[in-house]
């Protein structure tokens, strides 16, 4: 009998396949499909930060800003030095009209990684 994980009865290999398929769905502009696949992966592996980051990106792409914010926050609790997560959370706050919170995370992203996109968004001159 195959090794299964969680109550879904799916194997760990199936979760990897679902994760990779979710990446492809997001790249193909199907964020809702990606979220559906990632829900099962995260249910079986709630500690998987990569899956949470991908789900946050999918929520953002689907304009589900509150769930995106929650997932990016979980990622940053686990990886406070993740510049991309700070940048993406800042973009989420920006889309919600929360400019002060956005500015803080844009600046954290730029401080962690001098990526030109992060530096431009941080607007250190203002």
UniProtKB/TrEMBL annotation:
Q: Where are the TPR repeats?
A: 83-116
Q: Key word Glycoprotein present in the record?
A: no
A Pfam family matched in the record:
TPR_19
InterPro entries, alphabetized: TPR-like_helical_dom_sf (IPR011990), TPR_2 (IPR013105), TPR_rpt (IPR019734)
Q: Which UniProt keywords apply?
A: Repeat, TPR repeat
Keyword Endoplasmic reticulum present in the record's keywords: the answer is no
State the name under which the record lists this protein: Tetratricopeptide repeat protein
